[in-house]
Amino acid sequence: MNRLHVPDFVQESPGDHGDAVLLDTRSGHCFAMNPVAGLLWQEWRRSRDFETGVRVTAHHFPALSRDLIRHDARQLADALLERGLLTACPAGEQPDPPPGEQPVAATGNGPGDGPGPPGTTAGPARRAHPLADDARSAAGPAEVTMAADPGAQAFRSSRLPVRRTPPLGLLCLLIALVLIRLPFPVLLRVVRWTSHHWCRLDATGAQAAAALAAVRQAAARYPGRAACLEISLAALTLLALRRRRTTWCIGTAADPYRFHAWIETEAGPVMATDEQGIDAFRRILTT
Q1: Per-residue pLDDT reduced to its tens digit, 64-112
Q2: Which of 80, 90, 96, 172 could cross-link to 234 by cystine, CB 3.0-4.6 Å?
Q3: How far apart are CA 230 and CA 220, in angstroms?
Q4: Can you tell me the distance from the alpha carbon of 182 to that of 179, in angstroms, rounded to the nearest whole number?
Q5: DSSP-derived 3-state class of residue 167
Q6: 109-121 in b/e burial notation, b at 16+ Cβ within 10 A?
């Protein structure tokens, strides 16, 4: 019987209700799974056996027939194998490399539908979401605070002149817009190399807040798209030009499924005062 294997480039963010989101770091696409599919995935990762996943899932969902679960599990496994998020090989052999590097667009319902109820289908991703397609729009000039633990000191950046866009903020935004067009694995390697080999010191909360404020002010005047992915990457770039290190984070939230990117220092996430908190987002990738 073939053994199932999860490739190293697949990152997982499990939900609170059995659902899960998978990130294919080759392409930057995310795949959201409902609780039935999430449980199958967890068991396949643990046991590497298709039938074990079916048996455990049938035990957790006794109202469903095992034949229905096996049918849906087969569809899920086929979809994940097609996308390279699972590989299969005979017992005792090493798995073959995943087929190709080109992402396969997933099908399903649109974003915002959320996970399906247990017992309907174990279908895989509701849809493949390119991280660069985050629907958040860039906010206007705003003060920035450190969203750390309750009671922690908030770092505020001084408001920049309303009619003057910071040149460095605009430059870093343009650099980020170029970087975001790179293949996702290349982008991650650039960010990680810069953090580990170029940056010499960790950025303070105040420095990161000032960088984010400068980028957001530039983004407010940029005529094209500049959402959280571009803005956070631009702030990371601005700090890197000063050889200051921060962490780039990408997270997911459910009901409806949505994605967000931000930067963090040792004190915690850095966010604008007019942004909502990120408590609802589960980290799926950090650099």
Answers
A1: 888 999 999 999 999 999 999 999 877 655 555 544 444 333 333 333 3
A2: 172
A3: 12
A4: 5
A5: helix
A6: eebeeebbebeeb
Asked whether the predicted pLDDT for residue 150 surpasses 50, the reply is no
Side chain identity, residue 286: T
pLDDT given for residue 104 in this prediction: 32
Amino acid code (one letter) for 146:
M
Taking the complete model, does pTM exceed 0.70, yes or no?
no
- List the one residue out of 200, 286, 275 whose CA is nearest residue 244: 200
Q: Which amino acid is at 90?
A: P
Residue 141 φ/ψ, nearest 5 degrees: -55, 135
d(CA 99, CA 119): 31
Q: How far apart are CA 1 and CA 52, in angstroms?
A: 12
Half-sphere exposure (CA, 13 Å, Cβ side) for 116? 17
Q: Strands 201-202, 244-245: parallel, antiparallel or unpaired by DSSP?
A: parallel
Q: Which residue ranges make up each domain of the chain?
A: 3-91, 162-286
